[in-house]
Design goal:
- Helix 4 crosses helix 5.
- This protein starts with a helix and ends in a 9-residue tail after the last helix.
- The strands form three sheets. Strands 7-6-5-4-8 form a five-stranded antiparallel sheet, covered by helices on one side. The protein has a four-stranded antiparallel sheet with strand order 10-11-9-12. The protein has a three-stranded antiparallel sheet with strand order 1-3-2.
- Helix content is about 35%, strand content about 25%.
- With about 350 residues, it is α+β, with helices and mostly antiparallel strands.
- It folds into four domains: about 70 residues, Winged helix-like DNA-binding domain superfamily/Winged helix DNA-binding domain (Arc Repressor Mutant, subunit A); about 50 residues, no CATH class; about 90 residues, Roll (SH3 type barrels); about 80 residues, Alpha-Beta Plaits.
């Protein structure tokens, strides 16, 4: 029984090719796990196990052992149907969020999960992926094309906390610039992926669209994180909402909204301090502290004539000016209207 347990533990210790482990390292790991044995015995065990399992030895001195790159996942106990469903949902919905190295490591488990679910009879777990979907409430957009090589470099740099040299073209004037990037985090927003980063030794944090990188090359230097940077705090301060100015902060929004449209704010408040009170017939007063951002303006303009901003006065005037410009354009009297 002890030999069987040692073999199981040894198989778990073997990495997947191209990674490898030496018999000396196996000896140390087995000893730490409570299976002391000689290096000669380990070599003999590996030779025997390689006749039953897809194991490979590189033939070097010292020899390196690993599972074949295409080997099926080896699990004790084996994967159950609930785990198989979880792996399939991860493959469907989280693929973009994982670095390539993690996806490669997961591939045998994903393949085993698909095989296991295919073997199930009837509905239940087998059909669950066909019964759930994630949809956007906003207008659906096709994702921009992102260079796969750029994605690999960015993910690896972020994973290992290293800098990379990136060539980036500006959204505003289309110019291309090359700079040293310190990757701090990734933000997935609808079809877009944004890299939160700082450049060179500057402390200011920027938001860079991944699809605007023309090239990227991994550097040896470690990432230079701005002091005290925290991704969660950055998001809480509106970092991903395209603030109007670097120090925009928050504002106290007061608005009138039609009762029908405001219904969803009772279920999903716009802020933790949101207050809703009765207004004129068919309308409700809403007050909330929100981030002063472009995201807020896009949200308000999306309700058209079903919302009226009351305060702050500067925001009311800004929205009113945009509404007036829209009216003029639709009436064909705007100086910028196409002829």
């Amino acid at each position: 029984m002890e030999t069987l347990l040692r073999h199981w533990h040894m198989l778990r210790l073997l990495p997947r090719h191209p990674r490898k482990i030496s018999t000396a390292d196996l000896e140390s790991a087995l000893d730490s796990a409570g299976f002391p044995t000689s290096r000669r015995t380990i070599q003999r065990d590996l030779d025997k196990l390689s006749t039953e399992f897809p194991l490979v030895c590189d033939g070097n001195k010292p020899a390196g052992w690993s599972w074949q790159a295409s080997a099926a996942a080896f699990d004790i106990p084996g994967m159950d149907t609930a785990a198989a469903l979880t792996f399939q949902m991860v493959d469907t919905y989280l693929r973009r969020l994982l670095p390539q190295g993690c996806l490669q490591a997961l591939q045998p488990h994903l393949a085993r999960a698909e095989q296991l679910l295919e073997q199930l009879e009837g509905g239940g777990l087998k059909n669950w992926p066909d019964k759930v979907r994630i949809v956007q409430r906003t207008q659906s957009l096709q994702p921009p094309v992102i260079d796969a090589a750029v994605v690999d470099v960015v993910y690896e740099a972020l994973f290992h906390d290293r800098q990379f040299l990136g060539c980036y073209h500006s959204r505003n004037d289309g110019t291309r610039r090359e700079f040293v990037v310190n990757p701090l985090g990734l933000i997935f927003s609808d079809p877009l992926i944004y890299l939160v980063a700082s450049l060179w030794d500057y402390p200011d944090v920027r938001l860079l669209a991944l699809h605007r990188f023309d090239s990227a090359r991994l550097l040896k230097d470690g990432c230079r994180r701005p002091a005290g940077f925290d991704l969660e705090a950055y998001l809480a301060q509106g970092g991903a909402e395209f603030v109007t100015t670097p120090m925009a902060g928050t504002l106290e929004l007061q608005m009138l909204m039609t009762t029908a449209v405001a219904f969803h704010l009772r279920e999903s408040p716009i802020s933790t301090d949101q207050r809703i009170t009765d207004g004129p017939t068919g309308w409700l007063y809403i007050r909330a502290t929100v981030n002063d951002s472009q995201q807020l303006r896009w949200w308000l303009l999306g309700f058209a004539d079903q919302v009226e901003v009351l305060q702050p006065q500067s925001l009311r005037e800004e929205i009113a000016a945009k509404a007036q410009a829209m009216v003029q354009r639709y009436q064909g009297i705007s100086s910028e209207s196409p002829r």
